[in-house]
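Cross-posted from the bioinformatics board.
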Amino acid sequence: MHLTSQTDYALRLVIYLGALSPQKRTIAQIADQLQISRTHLMKIVNRLTNAQILHSVRGKNGGVAINPNAYSITIAEIVGYTEPNFAIVECLNKEECSCVFAGYCSLTSFFTDAKAVFIEHLRTKTLGDVIKENSVLPPSLN
Amino acid sequence: MHLTSQTDYALRLVIYLGALSPQKRTIAQIADQLQISRTHLMKIVNRLTNAQILHSVRGKNGGVAINPNAYSITIAEIVGYTEPNFAIVECLNKEECSCVFAGYCSLTSFFTDAKAVFIEHLRTKTLGDVIKENSVLPPSLN
């Protein structure tokens, strides 16, 4: 059980840009520093820009920076923007459920609750908390 | 974020055989009833038999049944037998982590804790609880 690579990379991206704020970086620079493919990165940047977590400026002097207001956003919210679904077991997504026990089984509510305690935990930390706790970037990124 | 299909199907299998106990069923019967491929099912049956959750008898009058002692096993334990890993984010599995922040980032301990609260929840229900709560099988399985 794991989050998608899109979510994993989105977290790396906001931590990186959060620590560098107010500096911006180009897609090429970020891809190089975080060792993520440009294509994959572009999709994540677009998504997080639409969510107003990032500011993106196109053109010659363009680049991507963290939106300073995003420091108060929780890890749960960031994950919510990038994770396609949280159907821990199939029956949490009724439309795509093939289980013959759907509607008859107490595991549906049980896993709904397990998902809720997981997400509740992710609400207890903000991006700002992580940036403050990390305090230093790895030497290779300074 | 979701459990693997192996885990999802393993849960269906133990609920099915748990409700039918002490009856046994052949792989062909189970595959037909639960609409799971035989190949996939065989692997899960082998794993759960090794874990002593199932009893498997080979041969002409063979079949698979729940081990009556398995009613006290928790959902966390069943999931632990079938889920290949719980690296919610890559840094929870140091050997396969590509993140440049590994060792510098507080999200590692944060997601370790998120995983722990999730698994702790899965410890609060046993297979026996689920069988009791479900009380009836879907009509097609009776």
